[in-house]
Amino acid sequence: MQSFWKLCFGSAGVTAIRTLCAFLVNKVLAVLLGPAAFALVGQFQNVIALAQGASSLALQNAWVSLTALNKDDKNKLLGIWRGGYRISVYAMIAVAIVIAFAVFFAPLRTLFPGVPEKAVQAALLLMLPGIAATNLTLACASVMNGLGHYRRWAAISLGSTLVQTIWVIALLYTQTLSLLSVIATQSILSVAIALPIAKGAGFKIPDLKSAIAFKFESRIPWLKFAAMGLLPMVLSPIALTIVRSYLGSHFGWQSAGLWQGIYKISDFFSVGISSALGVVLLPRVSAKMNRAEFRKTFYPLLLRILALVAVCVVLFVVFRSFVIALFLSTEFASAENLLQWQLIGDFFRAGGWCCAMVLIAKQQMGKFAIAETFFTIFFVVCTILLSHQIGIFAPTIAYAAENLLYFVTTFIFVQTIKWES
Asked: What is the DSSP letter of 107?
């Protein structure tokens, strides 16, 4: 219990600062742009998320889990790190080729109506060094988490977040780059903070080229993690892009922007929940244990996390008018009634993520893939069908229903895991 609250409040402190930084950037964009342009920025952020997920193979949880599992064997750990690093480099090269192709042949004017095509093309090219820096920063932070060096994890998380915030606000204020280019390059300096901190704990990129690392190199353990990680990283941006484009074409980009603003508030929850689960839950359930040990570890953590999220959701619902004015601007005031449904979805999303984290740690690829694929499609289809009856409320109610069913399904899947005796 004491360890839980220590880690929880520690990660909460980091999350609070990261959330504040995200709030500042989000606030600046919301005030400067208004709902319609805000929706287009969200469209581009989905493209970045898709490219970043594909280029890193969404291995952030794998870096934590495999490091925690092998940290007592230095040679094996070095080989594990080398395997993860190499497949990430190969994936980054493949994504760079796809982006270069998309610059000239993708329907950019359709995806970003009203934005000059050359501005979008420049932003796509500038996105490449940005996502490469993000991938390396996330790997460094995840390794520190897996090794149990929580102060170094916190330093990397906070340092990279602060640098990104300063970068975006400074370039927007000085108008050094176009808006999309600023968003594309916001992570480019974070690696300068992550690498020195990780080096002090033994994670050094040159060591991954050593003879020992070559001898013990292992890529196989990364493959299931890659398959499980890529699904949400790829499916989610695609689903959000489809829903946003549907809302924009049927209800206008003003309405799409209102929903985008509500979804951005959900992202603040996502940062907090994912940070807490990555520090408190993932390293623990990654260790070898039997069914009885798992129950003693997992279920108390699940109840505490749900209790904390429930308190936050209630506060946000009660003060939703203030929350929208604070996080967005008065132009988004008409979205107040949308927020409560989105927050209900966020509560169930937290429970679903807890169960999904167990499936990832125990490499239950089939079960995880079924849940992610089915419920992502469910969200899109449910939004489109409901929109004919309830209009702009459709995506928020579909989001709540999706996450409730996802939580129930993944909880059942966790019960079916076969444990060691």
From this structure: -
User: What counts of helices (H) and strands (E) characterise the chain?
Assistant: 17, 0
Rounded distance, CA 405 to CA 67, Å? 32
Identity of the amino acid at 333: A
Residues 187 and 130 sit within 8 Å (Cβ to Cβ): yes
Q: How far apart are CA 171 and CA 153, in angstroms?
A: 27
Tokens of 235: 């499916």
For residue 96, CA distances in Å to 53, 55, 60, 102, 109 come to: 13, 8, 20, 10, 21
Angle 215-216-219 (CA atoms, 0-180°, nearest 5)? 115
Phi-psi region of 182 (alpha: psi -120 to 50; beta: other; left: phi over 0): alpha
pTM for the predicted model, two decimal places: 0.66
pLDDT digits (tens, 9 = 90+) for 159-203: 888 888 888 888 877 776 777 888 888 888 898 999 999 998 889
Instruction: Find all residues with CB under 8 Å of 92, minimum gap 6, and list them.
Output: 55, 56, 131, 132, 135
What whole-number distance in Å separates Cα of residue 254 and Cα of residue 247?
Answer: 9
Residue 114 phi, psi (nearest 5): 90, -10
Tens of pLDDT, residue by residue over 275-327, are: 666 666 666 666 666 778 778 878 887 888 888 888 888 888 888 778 777 77
